[in-house]
Structures are given as C-alpha cells and as structure tokens.
Fold this protein.
Amino acid sequence: MTSGTSGPSAMLLSTKATNSEFFLQGVAVCLDAMRRAFPETDSLQKTTKFFYSPTFRQSEAGIPIGPNSSTPASSRHMLHLYTTPAPAFEVISEKDALYLHLLFALRDPSVGTLESNFASTIFYAFSALQDRWQELVEDVERGSVSSALTLEPSVRSRLEALVKPDPERAAQLRACFSDGFRGIARRLWPRLHLVLAVDSGSNQIYGEMLRESFCQGLAFYSPFYAATEGLIGVNLWPQEPNRRYLLCPRSMFCEFLPESLLEEEEEAPRTLLMEDVEEGQNYELIITNASGLFRYRIGDVVKVVGFHNRCPVVEFQYRRGQMLNVRGEKVSETLFLVALKKAVSQWPGAQLVDYCCAESGIMGDSIGGSDPHYQVFIELKGVRNLTEQQRYKLDVCLQQESSVYKSFRIKGSIGPMRVQLVANGTFGELRKDMMAFSNTSPNTFKTPRVLRRKENVHFLLGKTVS
C-alpha cells in the first residue's frame, strides 16, 4: 500500500525481483558511496535504526497487504548491526517502540550512525528524547524497562534480560542533558559519524532543523529517491548539499513528460526517453516497473541537473498533488517553502518548526465568505504571536517568488492568505491523527504540505493560538 499522505492510497504488487533490485541497485550502491565519502563509517560501530514494525492484513487469497517495508527482525543476519534488539522490533505501538530505540541507543556510547527512512522520523525521535530523557536515564541507571510501556510479557522479559544497571553511563547522560539539546547527538555519542535519512522534498525542513539543533556538526547522507513503486534513483554524491539522484535504468523504465505539457489532456501523452531529456528542464516521471505497473504517473516532477556517463541526474522538485491552485496559479511546494523561509527570517526570534496549507475551497462555511485564498498553518519556536504586518509579509514574499500569484493578487481574484500560528507540538499530533485514519506507517509517513481533507484542516483550526 502506498502511504496515502499526498493522495489516495493505492495497492501495488511487490515481488521478490523488485525487492532484490532495490537492494542490489540501491542499498549496495549507496553503502559503497557512503563508505567512500565517509570512511569512518566502515567500522564495527552499531547503528541506531528508527524503524516501526508495520501491521499487515491479508487478502481473501492470503496475500499480505501493508506498507512496502520489512522489519529488521525478519532479516536475522542484520540484527547485529543495530543497537535495538530483536524483541523491540515486535512492539507495534510507535510510542513504545520509539522509547525502546532510544533506551538501547543511550546505553551504547559508541553508536556510529543514526538511520531512518526519512529525516522527519529522526526529528520526532529527538523531540521524544527531549520529553522523556529523565525516565530513560533512570532506566539506564537501574537496568530496567519502564513500567509505563505496554509490552507483551514475553517481550518484556526478553528485553529485561538484556539490560543491566549502568550508573556510570547514566551519570554521563545526565551531564550531557544538563547542557541542553543543541548539539546533543554528538555529546551523547562522541563517535557518531553520520545521519542516514532522506532529507529532500517534504523532508527538507526536518533535515535543516536537525542540522541546526540536535545534530549540529554531523554529516547527513540522503541515499535514495524511491517510492512504494520501487527504486527510482541513488545519490552518488553524499557530500553535495543539493540532493541529486542518478536514475537507475535497470530498476524501472522511465519516461519523461515535459513540464510544459502537463496540462494537456491526453490518455497517452507524448513522452521522452532518457537520451532525449535536456539539462535544466523539468519533467514529470512516468514509470514502468517489473511488477506490473505500465506507464504509471507517480506525480513527481524532477529537474534534470546533469548526466552521469549518459544517464540523467535529477533533483526532486514537487509532487503535482501538492500544488496550491485556487485560480490556475499552480504554486509548488518548493516555491512556497522558499517564500516561507524568507518571511520567517524577517520575523525576529522566529524559527520554523513545521507548516502546511489548505485551499479555501475545502474549508466550507468555517472560514467565512471571501475571495479564494490560501489558509496557512505554521508552528514556530521563539514567538508566541504574529502581528498582522508579519502575516502579510508571507503574502508579499510569495508574490516576490511567483509572478503568476502576484498578478492574481493585484487583480483581486485571489485574496490575501490567512496565516495561523498553531500550538507547539501540533504537527506531531496531526501526524498521529492522520496515521490513525490511513494505511500508512511511521516509516513511510510524509507530512502533506497541502491538505486535501476538511477534517485535517479543522484539526489545525482547533490548535490555532494566534
């Protein structure tokens, strides 16, 4: 099942062949690139992998249906790589599993890598650490597993057998936490080398927040461009700040629809092949994979930024389903984020935590009668209120970035955007709320930047503080 966070959830076939291609062309290639770029990762240090065991249902024929991710515990030969022991991967509750990931990571001062599918998962892990560090340190000191966790008796007994009292490590941890949370990762794990997680696309802001706060001074590697449909590209340039991905021609067959043709209503649009694309141009990817998808439009628009040998290298630009479009202006996620960061930089003391938008058309009567406009929800650190001038600054910044949006605003056919400041922790709660009513798992959840469901918008309206 696709995650369903940026569109309807879809059911796709996963085969042994597609999984092995992902490993051989994706994982193996990226591990080699990682070793070359960061030779210190070629060691016997353990990795803390933030992974949550997904739940599966069965079709009438007995075929398992669920997210496209296998638990590390299902690959027994891999378990020795991770700080988290096998019994913890049997815990279904995300909250309890996260506590166990943190507990066993804190017990090991020699952790070398922090890993997850997405930077957002690691960001939320550090947020949980900030809330529960005292309880975790007490467990390290006593050699216990918190009684607040709801665990199967057999799982609890196996976990408790693995922990021993360690007052010396607990004292080290308390000293680390007493200095605050900026740069906490390097203090907790002095030999930590790398954060391994995708931090491009909708995860860009989480990567930036981690680098500025919890993970100061650490290297980041965003290894894959992938989807439930399969492996699309690999990042052979780990140290480059712009995340670019070499398309993998043997993983799936790619066609390219020029951005200028996206609005043409054709059942079989005229596409280009790999040898036809031009550097500097944007294209929607159309894929054919080995497990039955034929000329499938995944909705991703990429920019060709170069070639490796003769194979295109791309940067992700936006998802077509995540565009703001109330009058045909088509403001992409990338464009809006540039304007938002520019505005936030002009709000004294403000630091962006998270955001999303909605088009006024889905709001119904709750928003009152006015011209079509954007409803913007922002979570910030460092400020408790926004003035009307500050809110309007975001509208001005978007006009500066988008001439089309500006023209509609000048004509009055798009009204001024409404900017709402929400309470601290709101987007973490939204994430839990959305996962509770979808087929996604914490491993595959991506925060949608444009909300399409009225109930999600009303949830955020209820969290508005200014």
Remarks:
- Residues 244-321 form one domain.
